[in-house]
Amino acid sequence: MLENKKQDRTSLEQLGEFGLIEHLTQHFPLHHESTLTGIGDDAAVLYHKNRTVISTDLLVEGVHFDLSYMPLKHLGYKAVTVNLSDLYAMNAMATQITVSLAVSNRFPLEALEELYAGIAQAAKTFKIDLVGGDTTSSKTGMLISITAIGEAQEQHIVHRSGAKPNDLLVVSGDLGGAYMGLQVLEREKEVFKVNPNSQPDLEPYSYIVERQLKPEARKDIVELLKALEVKPTAMIDISDGLSSEIMHLCKESKVGCNLFEDKIPLDPTVIAACEEFDMDSTLVALSGGEDYELLFTIDHADFPKIKGNPNLSVIGHMADSGEGAHLVTRGNAKIPLTAQGWSSFQAS
Ligand code: ADP
Ligand code: MG
Fold first, then answer.
1. How far is C-alpha 64 from the geometric centre of its chain's CA atoms?
2. Which residues have a Cβ under 8 Å from the Cβ of 268 and sit 6 or more positions away?
3. Mean pLDDT of 44-69
4. At what angle do helices 12-24 and 109-125 cross, to 10 degrees?
5. Does the beta carbon of 104 sit less than 6 angstroms from any atom of ligand 1?
6. CA-CA to 84 of 20 to 30 Å: which in 125, 126, 137, 238?
């Protein structure tokens, strides 16, 4: 899994830019009426009957991903899902993407086919249309920029700024898995460097490794909330860690927050990995990042609608802005949250 040992290597020059684009984008069916013109013209033409919602991410090899343990198919999938996650965090539905690529000639066509297979899988899973992009060469590594385009009715859009004191703070899924998966992959990479014949046994870590390599954008949560008739008052996706996302909600909404340590949802495999790596699971959830779960606030009156739902955990409540943002520990101590976790961690 650590190196792509494929024998077939078709150089990119053999195809030329147009042949390459045509080849890579041939298996992308269009799903949406709002896509009037897709790939193949000077620009895509879209017709959204509602508000248009747009988000872009730029991923740089060596900064945002490491191809020594990230299979290209997973990279393609993840590059799409992290973008879609931003649209779902607005309570919007994603409809189109554009994909821009810079690659050095060390990548053969087969590598880009893998990348596009991952993009295609994400496009199918989340029902989105690939409507354009750009392709160019790079001197060294790979760069991928994806733009996600979606739509929502004006009254459904949820900003970071709408939380009120006493609103409940809710998170989907569980936290810390992606970060612990990264720890496992980094460790195996070091082992591989010392002994290239070693075959890592990742089976016990499959959940957390998958959380790192193949995160899922929570479209299902947006649909669930709609079905439950719950409109969050504020929402954000967890890319940088629970703590920093809570700080964003507090800042934009001008409120404080109390987060309860014992309510933070952790998968048993995350707890086990934290023990193995001698890490504090609360700190991992607070500052780990890349879980791509949704963090949102709801009015107290909506609590009965979400109560007991296995996909959702109430982890705290918002407070007056003067109260600040705090973690209430299992021992009932109140510790100020910081973007990196909590303040006692920084001091130590
Ligand atoms: P231009 O010269 O106008 O930039 P290109 O030759 O780069 O046009 O692109 C031709 C078509 O292919 C356009 O529709 C463009 O959006 C699409 N395209 C280019 N690169 C990619 C890519 N990496 N992925 C998807 N579509 C692409
Ligand atoms: Mg172009």
1. 12
2. none
3. 95
4. 10
5. no
6. 137
CA dist., res. 214 & res. 122, Å (int)? 10
Report whether pLDDT(20) > 70. Answer: yes
Measured between alpha carbons, how far is 130 from 48 in angstroms, rounded to an integer? 16
pLDDT for 348 equals 33
Between 207 and 1, the higher pLDDT residue:
207
Type of residue found at 342: W
Task: Give the residue from 10, 253, 217, 185 showing the smallest Cα distance to 121.
Answer: 217
Residue 69 has pLDDT above 90, yes or no: no
Pick from 84, 110, 130: which is nearest to 239 by CA? Answer: 84
Averaged confidence pLDDT in the chain: 93
Give CA–CA dist 128/31, Å, rounded. 7
Distance 91 CA to ligand 1 centre (A): 29
The pLDDT tens digits for 211-241 are 999 999 999 999 999 999 999 999 999 999 9
Q: How far apart are CA 293 and CA 218, in angstroms?
A: 6
d(CA 175, CA 181): 11
Q: What number of CA atoms fall less than 13 Å from residue 199's CA on the CB side?
A: 1
C-alpha distances (whole Å) from 343 to each of 277, 291, 325, 332 are 22, 22, 11, 16
Tell me the C-alpha distance between 46 and 34, whole Å: 5
Count Cβ atoms below 10 Å from residue 23 Cβ, excluding itself: 15
CA torsion 183→187→190→191, rounded to 10°?
A: -160
**Predicted pLDDT of residue 244:** 95
Distances (CA, A) of 332 to 227, 260, 261, 262, 270: 36, 9, 9, 10, 23
User: What CA–CA distance (Å, rounded) separates 163 from 245?
Assistant: 13
**Residue 7, SS3 per DSSP:** coil
Mutation test of ligand 1: which of 128, 129, 135 has the most ligand atoms closer than 8 Å to its C-beta? Answer: 135
Ligand 2 centre from 47 Cα, in Å?
Answer: 22
